[in-house]
Amino acid sequence: MTTEQRVERNLFDEVMVPCYSPMAEIPVRGSGARVWDQHDREYVDFAGGIAVSCLGHCHPIMVNALKEQADKLWHLSNVLTNEPALRLAKKLTELCFADKVFFANSGAEANEAALKLARRYAVDKFGTEKDQIIAFHQGFHGRTFFTVTVGGQEAYSDGFGPKPQAVTHIPYNDLSALAEIMSEKTCAVMMEPLQGEGGLVSPSVEFVQGVRELCDKHQALLIFDEVQTGNGRTGDFYAYQGLGVTPDILTTAKSLGGGFPIGAMLTTTELAAHLKVGTHGSTYGGNPLACAVAEAVIDEVSKPEVLAGVKQREQWFREGLTAINAKYPIFAEIRGKGLLLGASLTDEWQGRARDILVQAGKEGLMMLVAGTNVVRFTPSLVIEKADIDEGMARLERAIATLYNAE
Q1: Is 108 among the annotated ligand-binding positions?
Q2: 353 marked ligand binding residue
Q3: Tell me, what DSSP letter sits at residue 164?
């Protein structure tokens, strides 16, 4: 088989571990917010690789950064450091509360590092009894055994034997439940500042502020998982900046590399000191190629006009979804912030989110779901108005087909 030969979906079943069930279409190229499959059919991309492709497909600044770095240096290991990693770390610390950065390759790895740091800090400062990690039902923090256990969805963590211990889950946005369960044994609270996989659930201001206050009261660390919300996705560079609450540890990935795998854990100098030499590591973390691309991405995304543009695009999406719903009333609520949006389904349409996704694909629109009852949109942060309008037209046709078949 040559690289010029097109492959079909059945090859997946032949050669791939079946933990995914991808759709029949196989995208082979992309530009901006458009993608073409192996049969040269065009799609509007409202999915963005699950909130990853923040500048769309093959943005020139990413392509140029990768090509330039590819001629210089690919890999060293962390026996040595490299210039792209240092430049990127410096810029990330200038964009948020953090002083120090640990680079990884994914959101799960970044969250694993955050959880290990929280436990190590608690052991060093208070002793082994301070080990409780509190997280929230319907949260999602990755697929390693530690992170999937902390994520509050048993469907992802059950069936693998004994789980990591001292992990407690409570309802999101329920401050009284948190107050009741926190104690001097609590070492950290881990939360998404806007639940993504759990259905695009925003926190109340009172809840977020209350979590911070309870963490301070019990000398527990507050970890914000900004893997999906970070790097401009909500209209602030990090979502915490729009909530008026600062975490102790923050994780980021997904859109950090615009499609090139990279993750990072950010924290303060005081906390970082507890991950001494040898306590944690990553072979590829801080890879020069990934860091060079990520540096180009955040240089672009952090521009005030880009962040302002995210908020403008949110309004275009909300207007488009509202107009569709006026004709075909299947949405109960438009949730989320910035370009991390979800349309929850009415009682009559419960469980039909995937039906909408599949029908949208037939109309040439790529989108997502968040559970069975929420349709999710995480497009490029710089998607053009014309692409939004065309995508909404295709979504309307898909919904009309399903609605009229009832």
Answers
A1: yes
A2: no
A3: P
